[in-house]
Records
---
Amino acid sequence: MDINNTIALVTGGGSGLGAATARRLAKAGARVAVMDLSLEAAKAVAAETGGIGIAADVSDATSVEAGFARCKDELGSAPRIVVSCAGIGTASRILPRDGALTVDLFERTLRVNLLGTYTVLNIAAREMAALEPVDDDGARGVIVNTASVAYQDGQIGQAAYAASKGGVASLTLPAARELARLGIRVMTVAPGLFETAMSAGLPPEAKTSLEAGLPFPSRMGKPEEYAMLVQQIVENPLLNGEVIRIDSAVRLAPK
């Protein structure tokens, strides 16, 4: 799909992978709606990209619908490119030392990471289906979701996070198959260790230790490299129904 003059919406666009994606798509000519839980963060990235900033909670369908409506009102159409980067990183053992139950944390993690991704996909598909095709293939749109290598390599303390990202990975193929008749592609990116807010708080020695386990290149990924892959997915019409790891060939150890 040609990105130039196309409307895009990026969730979690106020920071990290989402912000880098919004900037990359804007540089390629897209008009970008930056959606984030923080309106201030969304507006800051939108100011850089010439787009609009929208506050929305992806785990709340009403909030997401309002965000898509604002995108249509202000940019003139529903987005043809939707990238879901909104998510939370949580860590907790299933059975902590104090014996406390962790059901609430598990539910919250799935609500944001999995239900939030599905909510955005569901609304995006409905909005894209009403658009006219843009090429001879009948393409109407592209939806890119974000999982994590933890869906395959989940470490101790990542049961909730890995389960939420595993759900995102698992919905990719059935969603792509169902939406194929509408000319809507669905892809998922599974990042490894990246320089984001989730990793920013690590002590230097912990970061060095993590990077030592990365085969090549032996460093954390840059958000711009995630964004580069998103652009390649959007532009390559045969990429559909697949989960792509972007991870320097890392396989996470149990702990």
---
Amino acid sequence: MVKRASWLSVTPEPERELPQAVAALTAGRRPDHAAVAEEQARIERLVLRGSQRRWLAYLHQVVGLIEQRSGSDDPDVQDARARAGAVIANHHNLLLGLPGAGARLTADDRARLQEHTHPFPHRGAA
């Protein structure tokens, strides 16, 4: 039986955008290269060997980081919040068009993102 993995084809932006943003949110400031590389490796492991539930659990944790850093006045953290929020909101909205439980499983995070960080005032280009 072939494992259903339509969630992997939703969008490539999380793999590109989240390592830098999540490392900044975790550090509370501009992250060093090692922290970004560690986050890239974490995402790669999830995509290559994880499941949709594990991937969505990871994104759920990032939504928590976005909320935790809402009071930061550090411009790198503000940018990371905006970038991560926009990427995850887009990802979760795209899940609405796929079969399976993805849309249902991300409903709470979609609402949290809209409530806490909408609109996403993104400072820089990708």
